[in-house]
Amino acid sequence: MSLIMSRADLDFLLHEWLGVEELLGRPRYAEHSRETFDAVLDLAETVATRHFATHNKRNDAEEPQFVDGRAVLHPEVAEALEVYASSGFTGATFDEELGGMQLPQVVAAATSAWFQAANCGTAGYPFLTQANAHLLATHGTSEQVDAYVRPMLEGRFFGTMCLSEPQAGSSLADVTTTAVPQPDGTFRLRGTKMWISGGDHEMGENIVHLVLARTEGAPAGTKGISLFLVPKHLLAEDGSVGERNDVVLAGLNHKMGWRGTTNTLLSFGEGAHRPGGEPGAVGHLVGEQHRGLALMFHMMNEARVGVGLGAAALGYTGYLKALDYARTRPQGRLPQAKDPSSPPVPIIEHADVRRMLLTMKAYVEGGLALVLHAARLVDEERTHPDPEEAARAHLLLDTLTPIVKSWPSQWCLAANDLAIQVHGGYGYTREYDVEQHYRDNRLNPIHEGTHGIQGLDLLGRKVVAEGGAGLRLLAERITATTDEAARRGGDLAEDGARLRATVDRLVEVTGRLWSTGDPETALAHSSTYLEVAGHVVVAWLWLQQALVAEGGTSDLHEGKRHAARWFLRTELPRTGPQLDLLERLDRSPLDVPETAF
After folding, report:
1. Does residue 247 sit within a domain?
2. Which residues contact 164 (CB under 8 A, 6 or more apart)?
3. Distance of alpha carbon 400 from alpha carbon 415, whole angstroms
4. pLDDT, mean of residues 419-428
5. Which domain holds residue 492?
6. Residue 585 pLDDT level (bands cut at 50, 70, 90)
7. What are the b/e assignments for 456-495, b being 16+ CB within 10 Å?
8. Is residue 30 part of a domain?
9. Helix or strand or coil: residue 330?
10. List of residues 6+ apart from 408 with CB closer than 8 A
11. Are 505 and 578 in contact (CB under 8 A)?
């Protein structure tokens, strides 16, 4: 069995639970088959195992270096990415006309799990490139698509997203990078961008930066932001790579994890390179002026789902390695074994180790299910023949996106913590992989919108938008599942009733939070609200899996039933005290004086 990812679980999630073969009846995916889906997953496992996992520890030990203004990486990263691109993975979900494989999003997400689990540092480069190319393919001009998207899908160009600035951080309303229009229709950009993953390297011919900036006279705040395509190298008229643009690597940030992905400070228009002798970095407007943030959310939302996938994958590989260690590490004896001369037992026989493993299983398999469910909603949104069903998929996906980003980032990180604990003292050493997986996963609650930002988004926007339509739809979907569990009877009915009561209370408390007309008090507990809603959603998906696994005789089906029962009976009750807190509208974080901290 692979210690990177479970192919058996992916097959269960894709085929038995999510029914991806139903998508074959839609025109976009009609050329595919179960066999092609399986072949792509086989190829992903092979490439991830042979070309990504093999240098994961080297990525951590030999992080990129800033040498003479350049980012220098060890060669295995470029070698792996060449295999990745030549295998067609960069264009997995793109139109065949652009050179893509036109795979369903849910199948592509399953393949991505292999690469994120095997080596998140190297996987970061194509992850950003794909999101960049998706935005341009959707909102760019045909000329921009031909000049930049096609080379990205071929693996010749890479892509980034340039949002944050040193003084602004996550507050994009305070972005100060400027863009000045030129007679030829281009713009000249000046400013500094911080925390830009993949912002500089020499593994391809070019890097395509998508940059948020302000044009002259633009309104203050987010309404005045526009989006620009700024290449590292300009293109000649024939599309070949030409002179260097005025985009300069000013430094590298050194992180506790994800060390294989360059994290950069970039300067635009500082004069180190002056294309045509003029100051400023040459940029091309994407879409309309002052709609930059709305367009960038196309990439940001994709990235947020991708962060959730990466978090689930890192938690999953940590779980598999802890499980393998527990099965092979003899230590101690069971309480009933009184003879000290009897042989030690594998630690998986100890009750507390089994508790930790079952908790990890519930977290990581639940997190992976959450992300793949979101990916399936993308396919429904894009290809469902009924426009009303497509609209409902869009609404549910929009509501769930903050949870998809943050729940795996919190709880699959907790699984990584437990993986270290299962290893004991060895888990805290670099001899074993689990300490790196924890450090790598610790970034995921931060980037692409922190845990707190996702809470504000969920409670402050998503569950109240359109009069609460998204929350109502979610509650309806959960209720349909609990009704099915009630019809089945037995333990499923009992677990379903527990979930039904919790979701009903969540809806009630949501109304209570907003009934006072005091948004400051309501949003003071938005992170708690996010955690409650996340546990409710994952409990729902576990109940769905238990319904599918009922009656199955394989070890996998039995494992699903046990993990579902554990989550619904041990994890879901965590939400009770949290809902009590939300209902009280406590103002402690707001009322404490700053001097009292």
Report:
1. no
2. 170, 172, 193, 194, 195, 196
3. 22
4. 97
5. 450-591
6. very high
7. bbbbbebbbeeebbbbebbbeebbebbeebeeeeebbbeb
8. no
9. strand
10. 308, 309, 311, 312, 315, 367, 368, 370, 371, 444
11. no
Residue at 295 is within a domain: no
Alpha-helix residue ranges (DSSP H) falling in 197-338: 292-328
DSSP E strand boundaries for 69-205? 70-72, 157-162, 178-181, 187-197
458 falls within a domain: yes
How many domains, in total, are found in the chain?
Answer: 1
Tell me the two tokens of residue 23. 């998508």
The enclosing domain of 520 has a CATH number of: 1.20.120
- Placement of tokens 């300067």 in the chain: 267
pLDDT tier, 169 (very low <50, low <70, confident <90, very high otherwise): confident
- pLDDT band of residue 299 (cuts 50, 70, 90) is confident
Q: How far is CA 3 from the centre of its chain?
A: 21
Q: Among 357, 359, 254, 367, which Cα is nearest to 314's?
A: 367
| pLDDT tens digits for range 512-560 | 999 989 999 999 999 999 999 999 999 999 999 999 999 999 999 999 9
Distance CA 215, CA 103 (A): 38
pLDDT of residue 103: 98
Instruction: Using CB atoms within 10 Å of the CB of residue 274, give its burial: 0 to 12 exposed, 13 to 18 middle, 19+ buried.
Output: middle
Give the total residue count for the chain: 597
CA 187, CA 282: separation in Å to the nearest integer? 6
Helices (H), 20-104: 34-47, 56-61, 75-86
Distance (Å, rounded) from C-alpha 199 to C-alpha 207? 8
Q: Which residues are identified as catalytic?
A: 448
Q: Is 572 in a helix, a strand, or coil?
A: helix
The percent of the chain in helix, strand and coil, each rounded to the nearest 5, is 60, 10, 25
* Token pair 């228009």 in the structure block, residue: 269
Predicted pLDDT of residue 338: 80
Residue closest to 201 by CA, chosen among 148, 263, 152:
263
| Predicted confidence (pLDDT) at residue 562 exceeds the cutoff of 90 | yes
